[in-house]
Amino acid sequence: MSRPKTALSVINEAHADHPGDGLTSVRSSGLRGGQHLSLASASAVLAVEGVSKTFQLNGKALTVLSDFSLAVSKGEFISIVGSSGCGKSTLLRLIAGLDSSYDGSIVWLGEQVSGTSLDRGLVFQEHRLFPWLTVEQNVALALESSGLTQQEIDARVKHQIELVGLSGFAQAYPHQISGGMSQRVAIARALVLKPRLLLLDEPFGALDALTRLKMQQELQRLWETEGTTSILVTHDVEEAVFLGDRVVVMEANPGRIKRVVDVDLPRPRHRTSAEFQHIKDDVLSDFIEIS
Ligand SMILES: Nc1ncnc2c1ncn2[C@@H]1O[C@H](COP(=O)(O)OP(=O)(O)OP(=O)(O)O)[C@@H](O)[C@H]1O
Ligand SMILES: [Mg+2]
Fold first, then answer.
1. Percent of the chain, pLDDT > 70?
2. In which order are the strands placed within the sheet that holds 111-112?
3. CB within 10 Å: which end of the chain, N or C, has fewer?
4. Which ligand neighbours the alpha carbon of 253 most closely?
């Protein structure tokens, strides 16, 4: 499964930090710890089992994730919500393979995760575009060492830029486009590699409310088009319910799963419907409790 490194994976690895984490997650609604995990793992493309992660901070051990277990099925969209500092980014980094020091196990497509792989794409909390490269060049950078011909790269980049609705801006530089457009470029840069797992860390956190709504719809459309298994970390409960097949509610100190809520609503979801509001309020009550 390992493909050649690209400039993007080098960038990712530059952000890889220290060893020594652990996390654990849970799977079915209302379950905690690793209950029913082996059953859930059987059909899972991603199985996070009993993961715990401890950092050393000022000479003291800080356990950030504790016994986190979660099994994710092919094509599933998982949303993760939780208060600041509860270990969400840490968890995504472990799944991405940016940090391989933890207790427990993370298995992707039957193999233990060890290091980054181009089939697990990560969109960071901030877009991290290169200001001296155009939109097109930023997206193409991910394919630099892919082994594809220049023609194939051009076609893929063009298609991906179209998919995120930026066709007219391929030659623009990051300072010439808005924050929302920059986030779309970052998503295009992750998707152009055709990852089988898309990890999104608060990708819309810096956007205004209206742009955010639009981006959520676009992400939903992309997910339906591409069918990529996705994990979205967000502080926005409505966003989590709008996009997720399941919403994982985390609690902090140490970061662990409080509850997993199924969102059994047809798509596209109507935010004003009674069913949507009910699930949102349900998740929100947990979220408020833990913040
Ligand atoms: N490299 C590190 N060394 C020491 N502590 C770290 C390191 N990275 C993260 N932490 C600690 O781990 C905890 C969880 O951090 P993390 O970034 O995963 O939180 P988060 O849930 O993503 O928060 P936010 O919602 O604010 O992005 C925090 O207490 C943070 O200080
Ligand atoms: Mg974070």
1. 84
2. 60-73, 44-57, 103-108, 111-112
3. N
4. 1
Q: Quote the domain boundaries for residue 211.
A: 7-16+74-99+113-284
**Atom 7 of ligand 1 has which residue's CA nearest to it?**
55
88: Cβ below 6 Å to ligand 1? yes
Give residue 10's pLDDT. 35
Pure H helices in the chain: 7-14, 37-41, 88-96, 135-141, 150-163, 179-191, 209-226, 237-243, 274-290
Is 33 inside a domain boundary?
Answer: no
Residue 104 lies in a domain: no
- Asked whether residue 50 is domain-assigned, the answer is no
Among all ligands shown, which has an atom nearest to the Cα of 291?
A: 1
Could you tell me the two tokens for 123? Answer: 């969109």
Q: Is residue 241 part of a domain?
A: yes
**CA distances, 54 to each of 91, 101, 106, 112, 198 (Å):** 12, 9, 16, 19, 25
Q: Residue 90 C-alpha to ligand 1 middle, in angstroms?
A: 6
CATH number at residue 142: 3.40.50.300
Nearest CA to ligand 1 atom 25: 84
Segment (H or E) for 52: strand 44-57
Pick the ligand that lies closest to the CA of residue 235.
Answer: 1
- Quote the pTM value: 0.83
- Quote the ligand 2 centre to 201 CA distance (angstroms): 7
* CA of 93, closest atom in ligand 1: 18
Other Cβ atoms within 10 Å of 72 Cβ, number = 27
How many structural domains is the chain composed of? 1
57 in contact with ligand 1, CB cutoff 6 A: yes
With vertex at residue 119, the alpha carbon angle to CA 118 and CA 121, rounded to the nearest 5 degrees, is: 75
